Fold:
Amino acid sequence: MTLPRIVIERCHYLAECTEEPGAITRPFASDAMRRAQALVTDWMAEAGMTVMRDNIGNLRGRYAGAGEATLLLGSHLDSVRDAGKYDGPLGVIVAIAAVQRLRDAHRRLPFAIEVLAFADEEGLRYGSTYLGSRAVAGPFEWRDLERVDSAGITMSDAIRTFGGDPDRIREDRWQGGDLLGYCEVHIEQGPVLEARGLPVGVVSAIAGQGRFEVEFTGVAGHAGTVPMDRRRDALIGAAEFVLAVEAAATTQEGLVATVGKLETHPGVSNVIPARAMMSLDIRHADDRIRTEVSVRLASRAQDIARRRKLSIEIRTVAQNPAIVCAPRLVSLLTQAVEECQVQPIQLTSGAGHDAVVMSSLSDVGMLFVRCKGGVSHNPAESVTTEDVAVALDVLSRFLELLAEQ
Ligand code: GLV
Ligand code: MN
Ligand code: MN
Structure:
């Protein structure tokens, strides 16, 4: 079987590591993640890497080089709920395949390659994003360790159960000496490459994002007896706010905003909701605009709450600034694309990636792979073997170019 075909097949094997039968849901520090890591450990070892797992739960495979410096490759192994097969795993598996090629050719580069399979990028279990890469590149938010999941398990306990030591996460910080950069292969998760008829594209920048929890509190009451004008219905306030979020996003060029989670309490059909909790995700390539809109929306939420006699609490879960990919790596990736006989294009990423956090540690570069319909965070995610073959060739060529420098 060809290597690109093996990459696709491995993504399919990983898709079977899930907490929900019939869907792909692989949260941080879960049994599904443990099974996925067992597979990835074998694949890394087969490619000639020494493998270890750090305290937060990232898997790290190292392929020694002739010199001391290290190039980092990788992506994440966790997923959203009811995910596709490729968001995250593809980058890890293509990186392993590129190393496998070197190993099969008995090649050592002038630098070591370390493949990082991050334990959590999506934030599904604890709501906080980039746990894996933040442990490596910092800053790690120590307060996150006290977060609880929906079953009441603290992040500290989840880490311990998974085999890590939350008190030693500091040791996960990169300590391996000089870095040449971090390069991540990822599905595009958008429609540009498909529209342009191109298999891959080089990322120039990644949009910033803010994540918040918004909670309206009113008063529970009887659905049959409390007149409409006497109600303090938390969900009605939340509903009005959701529409305000949509309006803010549609009137600000380049801004996207999403309420992806909404929970009510007590959540019973004949009780007026006393509490409505929602997530809010706001993104823009320009941090100033994103911050302005976030502030405006917070004040809008206050107005709605005041008018409806509700109380409101807004908690910031994460703020990740926009980042620019390193011109040196962008240019090498672009050259590698050209040398693989593909027209090079550069594009910005609206999705967040581990590269955002890794940029505080080293130069970062990213290669996007076309995905069908631009669809992701959806079981319909799909890539072709041919496009994966191009991505693998580009990554291999990129390694050679870096070695020639
Ligand atoms: C990560 O997938 C994101 O939400 O951008
Ligand atoms: Mn994702
Ligand atoms: Mn991803």
Notes: The domain at 208-320 is CATH 3.30.70.360 (Alpha-Beta Plaits).
